[in-house]
Amino acid sequence: MAEIRTVTTLRSKRAEIVSSIAQYEKRLAQARADLSHVNACIALFEATGDRESTTPYTDIYRVFQRGELTAICKAALAEHGPMTTRALAVHILTAKGFDAGDKVLAKSVAGRIIHALRMQLARGRISDAGKSKGVRVWKLPPTTHG
User: Fold this and answer.
1) In the CATH scheme, what is the code of domain 60-139?
2) Which residue among 1, 57, 136, 141 sits deepest, i.e. has the most Cβ atoms within 10 Å of its Cβ?
3) What is the pLDDT of residues 26-85, one digit of tens each?
């Protein structure tokens, strides 16, 4: 028996709709992925430096304002005298409200300290007091009056 033309047309329409739904689902999945990426970018740009809101992969360079790291180091050296890079890292983590026991974060901050203080050393604004147990000791240069 021959099919009724209406049934054939409806089956054709059903196949068309199924195909459209599949295309919409692909576009929806892509839109969800795009939204996820935008949300991740927003989270990175809104990083404030708070321990609770900082994810482990937050760029450490965004935690400190320009010159803040050097200023904290100089203040610590003025208050406590010569300090090692490790001691300065712990001091900075405490001053910023981070967990001073976080070894990964402390190592990252120590790397930033070394770079920042080497630049200050080259400009004569920080002095090198040698090494203690393989760790650089930093101090403020003697003040000259004149």
Assistant:
1) 1.10.10
2) 136
3) 999 898 888 888 887 887 777 666 656 555 555 676 778 888 889 999 999 999 888 999
